Amino acid sequence: MGRAGTFVELVNGTFQTIGIALFGRRFALPDALVARYPELAAVRWRAGGLPLRIGGWCLGRRTVAGITLGRTVFLANADALAPALLLHELAHVEQFARDRAFPLRYAWESLRRGYPRNRYELEADAFAARVLAERPPTRVGPPAGPSRPTRVVDVPRAASERPI
Fold first, then answer.
1. What is the average pLDDT across 53-64?
2. Tens digit of pLDDT for each residue in 108-160?
3. Burial, 8: exposed, middle or buried (Cβ in 10 Å; 0-12, 13-18, 19+)?
4. Does residue 19 surpass a pLDDT of 80?
5. Residue 3 CB contacts under 8 Å (≥ 6 apart), including other chains
6. Domain boundaries in the chain?
7. How many helices (H) and strands (E) does the chain have?
8. What b/e sequence results for 59-85 when a residue is b if at least 16 CB atoms lie within 10 Å of its CB, and e otherwise?
9. Beta strands 25-26 and 44-47: pairing type?
């Protein structure tokens, strides 16, 4: 029974690893970020996954920073959550919802005009810029500046820094 349990655990772990490689892992945005941009709560967020690689390959790169499929956004780096990127991808979620043929139209637009001039990319950039102009990002984390009084300490110069 012990060996069978170990085998099942191994198989489950293997499938879980393959699943994360293909579909990424789910994660939640920090509360402060959702409080600042509540519209981001409507999106399913995933870190990693094959869609990022495929998007990169289509652009001649190893990967992309983010890609949207329906209501799900895949991010390459869930540790660096830039509001501009998140809002840009949110615009793609809205484009998917607005037009069932969006994936085909997006691909056609990219083929015709190229990725940088794709009207859906330009629309997503403009949406993110508009929201950020209305609600600029706020600093998350400890307040800027020292948290306690600092002392001035005289540090002797290194020999290479001394005047000749």
1. 84
2. 999 999 988 999 999 999 999 999 999 999 865 544 444 444 333 333 443 43
3. exposed
4. no
5. none
6. 21-137
7. 6, 4
8. eeeebbbbbbbeebbbbbebeebebeb
9. antiparallel
